[in-house]
Amino acid sequence: MKNYINGQWVEGHGGTFVSLNPATEEPFAEITLSTSEDVDAAVEAAKVAYKTWRLMPAPRRGELLFKLARILTERKDELARIATQEMGKILDETRGDVQEAIDMAYYMGGEGRRLFGYTAPVEMPNKFGMAIRDSVGVVGLITPWNFPVAVPSWKILPALVAGNTIVWKPSEDAPATAAAFVKCFEDAGFPAGVINLIQGHGQVGEVLVKNPHVRIISFTGSTTTGLHVYTMAAALGKKVTLEMGGKNAIIVMDDANFDLAVEAITWSAYGTTGQRCTATSRLIVQKGIKPRLIDALVEKAKTIRIGDGLLPETTMGPLVNQKALDKVSGYMQVAAEEKVTVCVGGKRAREKGYFFEPTLLDGVKPNMRLAQEEIFGPVLSVIEFETLEEAIEINNGVPFGLSSSIFTENVNVAFRAIRDLTTGIVYINHGTTGAEIQFPFGGTRGTGNGMREAGQAGLDSFTEWKSVYVDYSGRLQRAQIDTDAILGKIE
Ligand code: UN1
């Protein structure tokens, strides 16, 4: 599978690499590998295309996004099947992944007729002031494999509708999905150079970050890589948006709707094999309800059907690769060392494929590694508490701040939680996953750098404000000095 540069599918100059199917460990696709020469060619194409793309009226750019939405709708199954075979999650989830991109295409397509700025009164007579969103130029994107269509769409679509052009380096664990997604842009009629795809590993991303013509970097992925990207980009004075790790919790109060909580915890902890940045990896549970809740969760975990995500009976797919399997298995060592109780799961599920059992660990203390570090697998740690204040403190006491949730039937408790939970996303009586594209997505503390994706806030990453003053008085007026002198002379 090739790179897409300046409207052409071309081979990279670095040979090829193979993308594996994590359910079978068999090769899925052979992908071209880029070098710095390819990155530079892609950036040059994006730079040239920017000159005309920025001048296309935004409503017309928006119409291309609507066209893209229709193509994605037609190819939803095709894209989902590629993604499932490449990164492992079940078909219902990869379809949902594509659906998020469709939703985003309609939302950002509509921005083509909004992209609201604002006006405000100005100090001088016969003068007008407004603030407008301006495009920036070439945007570099580095994206993960776990939402191989949705997450890139959160970056590509707002960037494009605002008038920027793109060079995209997708994860080496989801390259064929990326190519199939870019084909949709080609078929929708986006002009050559507006979106460019370069395949490869981390080094390719590094070259992209360092290219002087790339003014903005938007990254989603691991904390280690994200901070590396941030440091490199900061040294070059670039604007960066980061979405990194999570250590999300569901708090369950004694008065919670029990069945609802069991369903939501199971889905948030084990859905997508726990490989969402929003996945629930801590269950902070009040003392009274805890024994019953653990029993029910263990029973529920046993009903999960592990297997190839293409098969209709499967409810949980594999981890993405050997490295992920090693990492999650490594945390079982940590569990043994920290002497917590493995209530269910705790080991690899099959000999072939990177499958891991849904796992529930009890007796975890808030400061243990299991309760502090992102595991990114189907592993849920149970932490007990007595008072709401304690639960909130445990929730907030981690290096990440993406998503949190509380189950309670008491409206006062719910509103106190909304006030005091310090994550970027808060759910009441709903698991920690399932954010919708019309609201800001992102997290506090080590999850990000204060920027947000999606919703109106998502435009901030890809635009700069331009403040415009129009003086139609026909004479020299100086704001901030001399104001008294002109009073009474208004024409
Ligand atoms: C991610 O895991 O990187 O809120 C994104 C959710 C999804 C997005 C997850 N809409 O779980």
Task: Note down, in words, how this protein is organized.
The protein is α/β, with parallel strands linked by helices and 491 residues long. The protein has helices at 36-53, 58-74, 76-87, 91-111, 150-161, 175-188, 202-210, 223-235, 258-270, 290-302, 322-337, 369-372, 388-396, 411-420, 483-486, and strands at residues 3-5, 8-10, 16-20, 27-32, 118-119, 127-134, 138-142, 165-169, 195-197, 214-220, 239-243, 248-252, 280-286, 341-344, 359-362, 379-385, 400-401, 403-407, 425-428, 444-445, 464-471. It is built from 15 helices and 21 strands. Strand 3 and strand 4 form a beta hairpin. Helix 2 packs antiparallel against helix 4, helix 4 (91-111) runs parallel beside helix 5 and helix 9 crosses helix 10 (290-302). The protein is globular, with a radius of gyration of 25 Å. The N and C termini lie far apart (67 Å). The site of 2-aminohexanedioic acid (UN1) has 11 residues, from loops.
Features:
491 residues; alpha/beta; Aldehyde Dehydrogenase, Chain A, domain 1; Aldehyde Dehydrogenase, Chain A, domain 2; 5-stranded parallel β-sheet; 15 helices; 21 strands; globular; binds 2-aminohexanedioic acid
Main pleated-sheet profile:
7 strands, mixed
Order of neighbouring strands in the sheet with most strands: 14-15-16-13-12-18-19
Low-confidence stretches: none
- Count of individual beta strands: 21
CATH superfamily of the largest domain: Aldehyde Dehydrogenase, Chain A, domain 1
> What is Rg?
25 Å
Strand fraction = 15-25%
CATH architecture of the largest domain: 3-Layer(aba) Sandwich
CATH class division of the largest domain:
Alpha Beta
The chain-level mean pLDDT equals 97
Gap from first CA to last CA: 67 Å
